[in-house]
Amino acid sequence: MLKWSKIRGQARPLEILSTALDADRVHHAYLFTGMEGVGKFLTAQTLSAVVNCERRPEGAFQDACGACRSCRKIVDWKHPDILPVRPTKGTIKIGQIRDIQKASNRAPYEARVRFVLIDDAHTMTDEAANALLKTLEEPAQRMRLILVTDQPHRLLETILSRCQAIRFDRLDEALVTELLREILAEKQEEDALEDLTDLSVAAGYGEGSLGRSLAVIESGMLKGRKDFIGKVVNLSAGQPVALLDLAEDLKSSRDEMTSRLDVLMLFFRDVMLYKAAEDSTRLVNSDLRMQIQALSERMEMEDILDIIDEIRQAQRYLLANVNSQLIAEELLGQIRRRRA
Prior knowledge:
Layout: H1 11-22, E1 29-33, H2 40-52, H3 69-75, E2 82-85, H4 94-104, E3 114-118, H5 126-137, E4 143-149, H6 157-160, E5 164-167, H7 173-186, H8 199-206, H9 210-219, H10 225-233, H11 240-250, H12 254-277, H13 289-298, H14 301-319, H15 324-339
Parallel strand pairs: 1-4, 1-5, 2-3, 3-4
Helix pairs in contact: 2-3, 4-5, 7-8, 8-9, 11-15, 12-13, 12-14, 14-15
GO cellular component, one term: DNA polymerase III complex
Catalytic activity: DNA(n) + a 2'-deoxyribonucleoside 5'-triphosphate = DNA(n+1) + diphosphate
Protein name: DNA polymerase III subunit delta'
């Protein structure tokens, strides 16, 4: 069910929408910005349900009933007047925007107000963005547009100026930990926690994003995290075969390598933070505090920063489709040399 209470840690956006609903003056176009996975698109869908709930009195900030025909259709994405627009093969194309324009020329089929929810709006092609601009300049009376993005700088200034921007905040890690437990319990996937020493580690990897944290758990990247980090930091100069074997393991697949590079980045970030301040409260890998402390005491800050730069370079090489085996071997060799 789409309820305002499901949107956690976003008091300011809800306050803005509450004011608009209480005055029955929902803006014709909103821009929901903020990092991915903090509730932007859920808020957009919830707003569309609340406005169109058949049992909610207009001019009141309250939950949609969840039981009327409109609510049921919106929850299931079967409502003809709630139109989600998402990237196809990485972009939103002009044909998708033209469909919006056609919809704006006719009255809603069933809804009080038609909603168009454009996810990852920054992926619009130039042609699509210019076509959307025409719709924003001449908004239909019974249509509202919500653009959702974590990269508003990639949108045209003329589009930004025609939308009311609402910024969504990063979520507190304690809240993400709580939400992860609730989600896994609802899905009856408590067994997914067996390999996690602490859900706060997953929350830390998400860096304030519930979506990212959940993806970390579902990908399984944390399951072999301790073993993998241990092999990397304990690699010695007299083990060339071990380095090659670890490099082979690191580059097992492009997605897997991306995840493992993220693991190494966050681990050495923790080492850097501990070296700088000896503060364990900010560690992402809080369950590896003893290992982080020991490594920070053995290494110079310059070497830690160099390793972080090497990991960033490896990430860039991977995106550029450089041979992943060579990337892995070079990175591990650099880490071994600077850790020695």
